[in-house]
Specification:
mainly alpha
Length: 444
């Protein structure tokens, strides 16, 4: 009888949050959905929720374990700690994991978090964030997944509307890029580190491009930027560095527009900016920063390679050293791997088939981009538009690091999922000459 009651609760809690999510979405739609796109709003939300539940089913029923389940278990242990000792819970949230604190915070009543997860600061941070949802959902994995998916969807939609106001892409391409790419929906809507990173990235980009557009900086917006930056840096630092480098180039594209009427000043500023960019790349590849990024990226790889659950087809890039010239020589092949692989012939398995089809689509779009009659206009548009310049640099950096360090295709498709909307938008930019700057839109 007791077990039956638990089963009923397990069903009722997700249903309650599903209703709550659609109710909140109805209110939010009035504020963030433009008239031309609003017809896709609830369909897009349902589509994302479906993939979030498929993601959970994949880990619970097919893999029967894995990192998603481990994050949920770790969050539930923190949930237990909250009800046993709120003071210890708060202390745990704001302290780094250590063997001493493990014994102080957890016991046989609270349970113990998965060992590999507790030892890794990045993974443990995800558990801390998810524990807040575990408390309000009574440990319901399905409800937690739906809440995370809701925030992922809202962030994607808001960024889509912002980019759409630039009028650089057909409406269908924008909606597909941010809402309907299958692997993005699968890897970046459920309970995972990839989804957490994606959510904070899209919200950070919304703030960054509003600032670049000239919006007055409010304290609340600055706090959001700092929180998003902190979470991204402490979960995947190389993603934060990629955002910082790409944002700097985007801001340079914005400044260059101010000199359009003065040819001499425009050429001088572009030369200065190009020289600064080359110097920055040189410093980057000769500094300790590269080693730190590669080490952190390797942690992402080890999350899966050392876990027997994650087996599958591997790839390798020719042997390189960690010297600046070695990394530069590996850059082209790593970027190709990071963006386009696995190819269709390497994806003949249930877990990779969508990635193979997406790779085929991206290869087709790349070929069409370079053989189009208005390729010069497209390149000029990318060079002059802040968001597209950001997208180009961001894609190159993440593609390089993910392609170089992932080793397993199963790891690669997760790490690089975050750049797929940006790759798609770069390849489908309109060829018309009409320039449109980032608009200042009302914040909701």
């Amino acid at each position: 009888m007791n077990d039956q009651r638990v089963d009923i609760i397990d069903i009722l809690i997700p249903l309650f949050y599903l209703g709550l999510i659609f109710s909140l979405a109805y209110i939010k739609k009035q504020k963030i959905a433009s008239e031309k796109n609003e017809g896709f709003f609830f369909f897009g939300l349902f589509y994302k929720l479906l993939f979030a539940l498929l993601f959970g089913g994949y880990y619970f029923l097919y893999i029967q374990g894995g990192d998603s389940v481990a994050y949920w278990q770790g969050a539930n242990v923190l949930n237990n700690l909250f009800f046993e000792s709120p003071i210890n819970y708060v202390d745990c949230l704001f302290s780094n994991p250590s063997p001493e604190l493990l014994g102080q915070h957890f016991n046989s009543v609270t349970g113990y978090p998965p060992g590999w997860l507790y030892r890794e600061n990045e993974a443990w941070l995800v558990c801390k964030l998810v524990s807040l949802l575990s408390i309000i959902t009574f440990k319901s994995y399905a409800a937690i997944s739906m809440i995370i998916c809701y925030f992922s969807f809202l962030g994607s939609w808001r960024l889509m509307e912002l980019v759409g106001n630039m009028r650089k892409h057909a409406r269908g391409n924008l909606i597909f890029a941010f809402i309907f790419i299958p692997s993005l929906c699968f890897w970046c809507t459920g309970l995972s580190k990839d989804t957490i990173v994606y959510i904070f990235v899209v919200y950070l980009l919304i703030r960054i491009f509003k600032i670049i557009a000239g919006e007055k900086i409010k304290l609340s917006n600055l706090i959001q930027v700092l929180i998003c930056s902190y979470i991204i840096y402490h979960t995947r630092s190389f993603v934060f560095i990629a955002i910082a480098a790409a944002a700097m180039m985007a801001y340079g594209a914005r400044i260059t527009k101010r000199f359009e009427s003065n040819s001499l000043a425009k050429v001088g500023f572009r030369f200065l900016y190009l020289s600064l960019g080359i110097f920055t790349v040189y410093i980057f590849f000769t500094s300790q920063v590269v080693s730190n990024i590669m080490a952190e990226a390797s942690v992402v790889q080890q999350d899966f390679v050392n876990n027997e659950i994650y087996t599958g087809q591997k790839y390798e890039i020719r042997a390189i050293d960690a010297s600046p010239m070695g990394l530069i020589s590996a850059f082209p092949s790593s970027v190709v791997f990071g963006i386009y692989r696995p190819f269709i012939q390497e994806s003949l398995s249930p877990s990779l088939i969508f990635n193979g089809l997406e790779s085929l689509l991206l290869l087709f779009l790349t070929l069409r981009f370079f053989v189009s009659f208005n390729i010069i206009n497209k390149i000029q548009k990318i060079r002059k538009n802040e968001f597209l310049m950001f997208a180009l640099i961001f894609v190159l950096i993440i593609g390089f690091i993910s392609g170089l360090t992932s080793v397993l295709f199963g790891v690669l498709v997760r790490v690089r999922a975050i750049i797929l909307p940006f790759v798609y938008l770069l390849l489908t930019v309109k060829g018309s000459k009409t320039p449109v700057e980032i608009p200042l839109v009302k914040d909701n």
